[in-house]
Design goal:
The complex is a heterodimer of chains A (239) and B (314).
Chain A: E1 6-15, E2 18-28, E3 33-37, H1 44-51, E4 61-64, E5 67-68, H2 74-79, E6 82-85, H3 97-104, H4 111-124, H5 126-130, H6 141-153, E7 159-163, H7 171-186, E8 190-195, H8 198-203, E9 207-212, E10 215-221, H9 222-227, H10 229-235
Parallel strand pairs in A: 3-8, 3-9, 6-7, 7-8
Antiparallel strand pairs in A: 1-2, 1-4, 4-5, 9-10
Helix pairs in contact in A: 3-6
Chain B: E1 3-4, E2 9-10, H1 11-42, H2 49-66, H3 81-107, H4 115-137, E3 152-155, E4 158-161, H5 162-184, H6 186-196, H7 198-203, H8 208-233, H9 241-256, H10 261-281, H11 283-300
Antiparallel strand pairs in B: 1-2, 3-4
Classes of the chains: A alpha/beta (239), B mainly alpha (314).
């Protein structure tokens, strides 16, 4: 089997005295969509924050493409292709849509490629093209999520961390967002996805981990988890 | 002649004071942007900023002295334009370095502690620089070389010293340049991104520490320009000259809306004009104008004239 693009080994993260992540180990292989499902406050976002260097683990190792990144700065990881689209989308409301996209390419130096890339993103997201001069803050929630994904793609990620892309969006728009996730994955980007909406996340991923109170509970292929009675009862609303 | 009230102050006199006020306000604006930019990214009032302005004046005084351009007796050495430019640039570079040093040593270690801790530290740095300045430069006022022979220039109904015209012109160019830098360049976009949300800025691959350092460097360089301009106009340097100037520039930043660069320019000009106009009647009261304005702004519109009450800054 190929070397995983991301490997977490025995991660323990604390917020002051609160033990937020307990001995988390997981791996993501190149080309996969892996999802982390779990309740509010289970530690999903903290896991992503630890991967991209916003939080630090006290133990174990975070390995990205075989390299320990336990102390690498976040902005440096972006250059290496490890990019996160944050929860709550993090659109800069005072910057135009186009400026938001360009700032996604901040770490890149290949000017002409950036222009081509920008054009390509506008082709995938025609809505963003229509609104490219508008301030980011004037977009609807769904459009902002599109912009957040498009913006993180501007950093040319190899591994994209998506934090709750469905948060606060209408079901129909959630469908569109996940079609985009599929498409991004087909274009060769590996994705680690965090979702409270377990059903749709499992339908659009290859493998999944269930995280409960800071610990990995169940893991397996997404198809297995969709059939797992424990997952059904706790996360899919089936008795 | 149009008599205003019964004090014998003419309309022309008021106009003249407005013109003087624009010159005064241009300097406030140059210093106010430093407050506003740092506040924009860190939500910190850098109270040491007035001292950076003071250092800016001294950083051009000493090279001028070493180069032999200090006035001795009634003799006034002529300073070539190239040297004047060099003094400006040198002072800007030195102050930029000082600004970054202050950030690195005093504020960065406190980045994650309470805002009060950083604020108190800022006051501490300010006191340190004031007293350090007295130790290093001496408390006695220093005379500054005369770059240009002061003469009055008639501009329609008002007359303005040529040095004041230089102040207004240089400040306008610097402020416009800064505005364009922040709005049009990549590091400028990084600054705006950091001012909105540092965490997200980091996720975009922006080196936040470097962007903050750049913000301090640019604000400090602007203050240095203010320092050299004032020294050129009123050649009397003291290590405490930054105290009142810093406070007033801070008021200007608050008046314009702290976090907004055009606001700092507007606030500076308004404050300068208000002070000068009040000074037509009473120079004593003109010193109080800034603080009256501060109280009024905080009572009536705390976000300032161009400030936004949301999180959008710079």
């Amino acid at each position: 089997m190929a070397e995983p693009i991301l490997e977490l080994n025995d991660i323990n993260v604390y917020y002051g005295a609160i033990h937020a992540l307990k001995n988390i180990s997981l791996s993501v292989n190149e080309g996969e969509v892996v999802t982390l499902i779990g309740a509010n406050g289970a530690g999903k976002t903290t896991t992503l924050a630890t991967v991209c260097g916003l939080m630090r683990s006290r133990t174990g190792a975070v390995k990205y493409r075989g390299k320990d990144i336990g102390s690498a700065p976040t902005h440096g990881l972006v250059k290496e292709g490890l990019v996160m689209a944050p929860e709550g989308r993090g659109i800069f409301p005072n910057l135009s849509v186009e400026e938001n996209l360009r700032i996604g390419a901040y770490a890149r130096t290949d000017k002409s490629d950036i222009e081509a890339d920008l054009k390509h993103k506008f082709e995938i997201f025609p809505r963003l093209h229509e609104r490219r001069r508008q301030k980011g803050g004037t977009l609807s929630g769904g459009e902002q999520q599109m912009l957040a994904i498009a913006r993180s793609l501007m950093s040319q990620p190899k591994l994209l961390l998506l934090d709750e892309p469905s948060l606060g969006l209408a079901p129909l728009i959630v469908q569109t967002i996940f079609q985009t996730v599929d498409q991004v994955n087909r274009e060769g980007v590996t994705i680690l996805l965090v979702e409270q909406n377990a059903r749709i996340a499992l339908k659009h991923s290859h493998r999944a981990y269930v995280i409960e109170s800071g610990e990995i509970g169940i893991e397996g292929t997404s198809a297995e988890l969709l059939d797992d009675p424990r997952v059904k009862a706790a996360y899919l609303g089936e008795a | 002649m149009l008599p205003l009230l019964d004090s014998g102050v003419t309309f022309e006199a008021i106009l003249q004071q407005v013109a003087n006020g624009v010159a005064k306000g241009s300097v406030y604006a140059l210093i106010a942007v430093g407050y506003t930019m740092v506040y924009g990214v860190l939500q910190l009032i850098n109270f040491a900023h007035g001292e950076v302005y003071m250092l800016g004046a001294y950083f051009s005084y000493y090279p001028a002295k070493w180069l032999g351009y200090l006035p001795e007796g009634s003799e006034k050495p002529k300073v070539p334009l190239l040297v004047i430019g060099g003094l400006f640039v040198g002072s800007m570079a030195a102050c930029a370095a000082i600004g970054m040093l202050i950030e690195r040593l005093a504020y960065r270690p406190l980045r994650n502690s309470s805002r009060l801790a950083a604020l108190i530290t800022a006051i501490g740095v300010s006191l340190l620089l004031q007293n350090g300045g007295q130790m290093l430069f001496g408390a006695d006022p220093k005379g500054f070389p005369q770059f240009v022979e002061q003469e009055s220039v008639n501009l329609g109904p008002v007359a303005l010293a040529n040095t004041k015209i230089v102040i207004i012109a240089v400040a306008a160019v610097m402020m416009t340049g800064l505005h364009l830098f922040v709005q049009k360049t990549k590091p400028g976009a990084a600054m705006r991104a950091c001012s909105f949300d540092m965490r997200t800025a980091r996720l975009m691959g922006i080196n936040v520490d470097r962007t903050i350092a750049l913000t301090f460097a640019m604000g400090s360089a602007m203050a240095a320009v203010g320092g050299v301009l004032v020294a050129m106009d009123q050649p009397r340097l003291t290590p405490l000259m930054g105290l009142l100037m810093g406070l007033k520039a801070f008021v200007a930043a608050v008046l314009g809306g702290i976090g907004s660069i055009p606001g700092a320019a507007l606030g500076g000009l308004l404050l300068g004009v208000a002070e000068s106009v009040v000074g037509t009647w009473s120079t004593t009261y003109s010193e109080a104008v800034a603080f009256v304005i501060l109280i009024l702004v905080l009572l009536v519109k705390p976000s300032g004239l161009l400030g936004k009450s949301g999180r959008e800054k710079v």
